[in-house]
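For the sake of clarity, the format in which proteins appear in this thesis is described at this point. The fold follows as a row of integers, each naming the local backbone shape at the matching residue. One such record is shown here in full, so that the layout can be seen directly:
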Amino acid sequence: METSQFSFRNRLLLLWDEFGEAAVGVAMFCALALGLLIPAMMRQADPVVGTQLVRGIVEYSTTMPLNPKIAVGQGFHYRYEVRLADTAELVFVDGELDAPRMIGSEVSIERQHHKHGADTYRLPNG
């Protein structure tokens, strides 16, 4: 059997000429599939494993979002800066509009410990 006289470079050029558009399409499809899978993979389960009731003092409050055009479909809420009584750290807590807290008032908030070590805070209902 006789080998062809085409160099490797020429073979690649022939393959690109024949299947180039299909290769670009396959690459775009793979990129789109990866783009859709990445957010799902980043949202790994991080359940709450423990809660603790802590007290703090409201230092600042503002309505969120700051731009009213962003609030369409979501509604407004308060964002409080609360200085914790036990650790003196400053945390952000979101609250509903129907129960505003005054600056300087003492509030109890719930610290939620997550599986991967993160702590989040929320105002308990009621």
The CA atoms of residues 56 and 72 lie 31 Å apart. The first helix runs from residue 8 to 42. The two ends are 87 Å apart (CA to CA).
